[in-house]
């Protein structure tokens, strides 16, 4: 069975950094597009970044230069390094099998990890 398990969320102050991890089983991260999206409390979801099978990276405009997506094929793990976090980025972050920043219904996604950024 395919399983995605995120970790690394937490409560931080504005300007801090966090690195999210997503351990994937049953699905090789090396051969598919994978990415991160976030769900705001009581609001919609938005794509944050994704990385293709040939390591092409795409980001939403407001995280460019602050967030970095990467993967470790040997560990079958996806990462999201987030620097200079802002309070408005408080959300549940999900890793998923996505190849777009327009989020519909991903085939596979994790349970999410909460990132809370205080001012």
How is the topology of this model organized?
Blueprint: E1 3-7, E2 10-13, E3 18-25, E4 34-39, E5 45-51, E6 57-59, E7 67-72, E8 77-82, E9 91-96, E10 113-118
Describe the structure.
This protein is mainly beta. It is 0% helix and 48% strand. The chain is built from no helices and ten strands. It has strands at residues 3-7, 10-13, 18-25, 34-39, 45-51, 57-59, 67-72, 77-82, 91-96, 113-118. Strands 2-10-9-4-5-6 form a six-stranded mixed beta sheet, with no helix packed on it. A hairpin with a 4-residue loop joins strand 7 (67-72) and strand 8 (77-82). It is globular. The termini are far apart. The model has no long low-confidence stretch (mean pLDDT 96).
């Amino acid at each position: 069975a395919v399983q995605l398990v995120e970790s690394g969320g937490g409560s931080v102050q504005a300007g801090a950094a966090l690195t999210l991890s997503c351990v994937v089983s049953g699905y090789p991260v090396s051969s598919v597009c994978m990415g991160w999206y976030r769900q705001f409390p009581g609001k919609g979801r938005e794509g944050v970044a994704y990385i293709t099978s040939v390591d092409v990276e795409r980001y939403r405009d407001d995280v460019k230069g602050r967030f970095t997506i990467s993967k470790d094929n040997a560990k079958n793990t996806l990462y999201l390094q987030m620097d200079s976090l802002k309070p408005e980025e408080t959300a549940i972050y999900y890793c998923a099998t996505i190849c777009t920043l327009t989020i519909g219904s991903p085939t596979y996604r994790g349970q999410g990890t909460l990132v809370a950024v205080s001012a």
